[in-house]
Sequence to fold (206 residues):
Amino acid sequence: MSNAFLEHRAKYREVVSRRYGVTPELYDEATRLLAPLTRPFSVRKGEYLQRIGTPVQHVHWLHSGVARTGFITETGNEVTLHFQTDGEAAGAHDDLLRARDAEPALNFVIAETAVHGFRLDWLEVLNTYRGNTLLRDYYLGATQRAIIEQSRRLYLNASPAQGRLHAFRREYPGLEQRVSQKVVASFLGITPQYMSQLLRQDGSKA
Fold:
């Protein structure tokens, strides 16, 4: 059993249990059941945790660093869906569902900084979920959270660019200083040039 995983998860007990809508006791039980499946991993900035076109094999729990999930449009543009930081699971939930039928992932997950954490084999996790009612409840909470985040992203896309920038700062406090301006622009759905213009406008209002 990974004591490092247990210790790290304990730091985020209150935050994640509240986010998933589960009790801290259920969070602890899920942590205990998942711990034997974990393996430590480290990647450098720019390395992929998940690639488009291949079925998802692993779930990643971040100990430190920033990862980014996104996809490539038919015209070749890169779109950022969301970011994951310390104490969060990295990936796209829809790709995890596809992997159950060995379907290829539609999204990528890339390290925006050096990333350290724990890797779990997704099929092993699924088998563990199927054999434990408590883990299924925990997984349901994580799934519902993913649906809420997807819905929030749709509302965000309908907002003016300035409003999207402010929403990004509320949702990811301090992240703007850890990733590139180009990456933030891809999350906001604007060009890097327009991003620079927004920042100048925002600075003039400060």
Q: What stands out?
A: The first strand starts at residue 38 and ends at 43. The chain has a mean pLDDT of 89. Residues 133-157 form the longest helix (25 residues). The CA atoms of residues 95 and 166 lie 29 Å apart.
